[in-house]
Amino acid sequence: MKKIRLIEVKSELGAGTRGASLGVDALKIACLNKQSDYFKRFTSVEVPNLNDVLFEKNLFPHAKYIDSVLQTYKRISNTVEQTIGLGMFPLLLAGDHSNAGGTIAGIKAAYPDKTLGVIWVDAHADIHSPYTTPSGNMHGMPLAASLAEDNNECKVNDPDPETIFFWEALKKVGTDKPKIKHEHIVYIVTRSYEKPEVYLFDKHNIKNFTYPEVMAKGIEQVAEEALNRLRECDIIYVSFDVDSLDSKFSKGTGTPVEVGLNVAQAKELCHHLVSHPKVICFEMVEINPTLDAENTMAQNAFEILEYTTEAIQNRLAKEAQTVPFA
């Protein structure tokens, strides 16, 4: 039977608020407090990070620390590609959401000829480029990098040549071509975005299941519709940012937003999504225990993680039973 491999990515280069590098350890503390053996059950690998550069002056105002983010992308991409090559299911526990760009690069490096769909469960759209970003924080750019999308129609910044050099290199990690298409992104409960991102939503008819729509349709139907929208894709990657939860449940994250999922809804949503046979990678990001006195965010996230992992295991076990002997 195919095994899950945990990939720990403690990089927080892309975040605006410090502390997401501690998210994986916060999950482990939540696991200990629950007296769970979760982290003993699976093989894990840690991707070396470059967080020490945060002590240096940032040289790229429109794409902060992009030179080190590029190196981190390559490391994540190689680890994800290797994990898939070993016949294992990559389950990533990462710091900030910029790391997802490396994950997508690794999936495409492993499956260059397959069409990849992305389900992005997140309060934010993360589809800015250095030309449109209001903050320069790279955790707002992983989807644009994966799409090779500059969005020059909405240009508000004039990045210097060095920034552009690294941005162009970032787009090519894993494969020289764009890794995903706009129409193969589905957002769930995204509710904080800027005009350049809305422009891309409208231009490419990108679907966002808003919180009111989720409430009206129910979690199961939204999951089914999201997967159905990606029916032309061969493989699917699910990225879960803990700020998709309502800010009541997600204080321990850098950019909490009101009116989001509760823990039970998040568990049900992730469970439905990863139970689909096309889903070949799951990622959880943006837990920041420095913003959270009681480690509540990590406890909630760990509950979601355990439930989601169980669904992945159940599915992999069923698939192993249905594979005929050669």
Automatic annotation (TrEMBL):
Report the Pfam families cross-referenced here: Arginase
Cofactors required: Mn(2+)
Which keywords, in A-to-Z order, does the entry hold?
Arginine metabolism, Hydrolase, Manganese, Metal-binding
Q: Which GO terms describe its cellular component?
A: cytosol
Tell me one GO biological process term.
arginine metabolic process
Q: What are the protein's GO molecular function terms?
A: arginase activity; manganese ion binding
Query: Where does the source fall among the domains of life?
Result: Bacteria
Q: Which Gene3D superfamilies match?
A: Ureohydrolase domain (3.40.800.10)
Which N-terminal residues, if any, form the signal peptide?
none
| InterPro entries per UniProt | Arginase, Ureohydrolase, Ureohydrolase_dom_sf
EC no. given is 3.5.3.1
Question: Pathway involvement?
Answer: Nitrogen metabolism; urea cycle; L-ornithine and urea from L-arginine: step 1/1
Which family, according to the similarity comment?
Belongs to the arginase family.
Can you say what this protein is called? Arginase
User: What lineage does the source organism belong to?
Assistant: Bacteria, Pseudomonadati, Bacteroidota, Cytophagia, Cytophagales
